[in-house]
Design brief:
The protein is an alpha/beta fold. About 30% of the residues lie in helices and about 20% in strands. A hairpin with a 2-residue loop joins β2 (about 15-25) and β3. It binds zinc ion (ZN).
């Protein structure tokens, strides 16, 4: 036997810790791991001496917009941004046009994703809403990894992207959760209190307070944690497994922690921007730093780290939400007119590795791998195909060096919406990703992704959950 690829001399993440080992890859899978050196020939050898080797990142929260709003990003462009940042599998959330609330729409999205010939593996969420609850159990049979919903009506002007994706009142939430519970899959919920938010926005507008600095106060912490508390209660009553996404406040995390301690099965996601940035970014970058929930105060940021370290937070997603600069620039006149979302699929893993290397927050590299690679694969039932380095698993690897530095530069971003990727621009990281390997093929080397030249165009494949 001859291996297709060997990664040798690296510090490899195996069973929760780093050990010196060589990895042999054959037919897209990890064939063997050896601590004593490989004695099998390989077509290609990567020397990872002095470098770390971890499972490819699994991003639990991305929006690719394709089809419907492919001007913002496609399964091709955004896949390049993903692998540039060490993510080899993305879980796509259904804000698209239309959202995939039934088999037909989902099949079409699968078709579009395939036609775009991207370089990242992808799995789908399906939309769950009050409009078509009868579709929930049907679409669950199509290999999706979870459901997603929003707890408000479609934002003005974006109605096409929210069809079948909202549970707009408590009755719809209850019925929708009952249906999702039947499937045994998770329900990811955007958790913000729309009544409060609409009230604040109306008041600020009446007072002429429409500058970027009013975005955060229009969605204060209470607008998140009251809804999280309610959703936990509804989930407990219906037996639905919640995926509390992009949680930004300590109080919401505390509610989730207490529910877990009571034995309720639920998952908690946060994003790098809630851990690393504060509301000051809105002053610097205006609508380019507008996301929902909003960035918080420094105190809040300090407080949520506790829940990252104690195991309450299960995974870190990017909430990659590309928009064109011209859409964001509507916020120059009135911040409430700008759509909410940031570009971040490319920096999720590097930023978290950097935190571990810097060591200021007490997070270890091992915990970063759990949060960004392993836990997502387990929670969304694509493990051990994804999220782990062991024989038989897909050969998805990231090789990085903590002795090299890397400066984030929006111009080098592969996202179609790179012009809004300013919030981390110029930040120097104490790590550099050297390789991203997807099912045995190098899809990124030294930050460069060139599918045409590398012959990797279309290498990205649909991933279905385990049954
Ligand atoms: Zn999102």
């Amino acid at each position: 036997m001859k291996l297709d690829l060997a990664v040798v001399n690296g510090k490899v993440f195996i069973n929760g810790r780093f050990i010196n080992a060589d990895i042999g890859i054959k037919d897209e899978k990890i064939e063997l791991i050896s601590e004593n050196g490989l004695d099998i020939e390989a077509d290609k050898v990567i020397d990872a001496e002095g470098k770390y080797v971890i499972p490819g990142g699994v991003d639990t929260h991305v929006h690719f917009r394709d089809p419907g709003h492919s001007e913002r990003g496609t399964f091709y462009t955004e896949s390049m941004a993903a692998v540039a940042g060490g993510t080899t599998t993305i879980l796509e959330h259904p804000i698209s046009s239309p959202p995939q609330y039934n088999k037909e729409i989902l099949d079409n999205r699968k078709k579009v994703a395939k036609e775009r010939q991207g370089v990242v593996d992808y799995a789908f969420f399906a939309a769950a809403g009050g409009q078509y609850p009868e579709e929930i159990t049907k679409v669950a049979k199509e290999g999706i990894v979870a459901f997603k919903t929003f707890l408000h009506e479609a934002p003005e002007g974006r109605e096409d992207e929210f069809v079948g994706l909202t549970m707009a009142n408590d009755y719809e939430i209850y019925i929708g959760m009952q249906e999702v519970a039947k499937t045994g899959l998770m329900l990811a919920s955007h958790a913000e209190n729309n009544d409060l938010i609409q009230g604040f926005i109306k008041k600020f507008r009446q007072e002429g307070k429409v500058g970027a600095e009013y975005h955060c106060p229009s969605r204060p912490p209470i607008s998140e944690y009251t809804t999280v508390q309610k959703m936990i209660t509804f989930a407990e009553a219906t037996g639905c497994i919640l995926d509390l996404v992009h949680i930004s406040t300590a109080k919401a995390m505390q509610y989730a922690k207490e529910a877990k301690e009571r034995g309720q099965k639920l998952y908690l996601e946060t994003c790098p921007h809630y851990l690393l940035l504060t509301e000051e970014e809105l002053i610097k970058h205006g609508a380019y730093a507008k996301c929902n929930p909003p960035l918080r105060t420094k105190e809040e940021v300090d407080n949520i780290w506790k829940y990252v370290l104690d195991g309450t937070v299960d995974f870190i997603g990017s909430d990659h939400g590309p928009f064109l600069a011209e859409e964001k620039d509507k916020g120059l006149k009135d911040i409430f007119l700008a759509p909410a979302g940031t570009v971040g699929i490319d920096v999720r893993l590097p930023l978290m590795i950097n935190e571990a290397v810097e060591g200021k927050r007490g997070i270890t590299l091992e915990r970063v791998v759990e949060l960004c690679c392993e836990n997502p694969a387990k929670a969304f039932n694509i493990y051990p195909k994804k999220g782990v380095i062991q024989p038989g698993s897909d050969a998805d690897l990231v090789i990085f060096d903590t002795n090299e530095k890397y400066v984030i530069d929006w111009r080098k971003n592969y996202s179609k919406s790179k012009e809004i990727a300013k919030i981390y621009d110029g930040k120097e990281l104490n790590c550099k990703l050297n390789y991203t390997i997807l099912r045995g093929k190098v899809v990124m080397k030294d930050g460069l992704v060139d599918p045409e030249k590398d012959g990797t165009k279309g290498w990205g494949k649909l991933v279905l959950r385990n049954n």
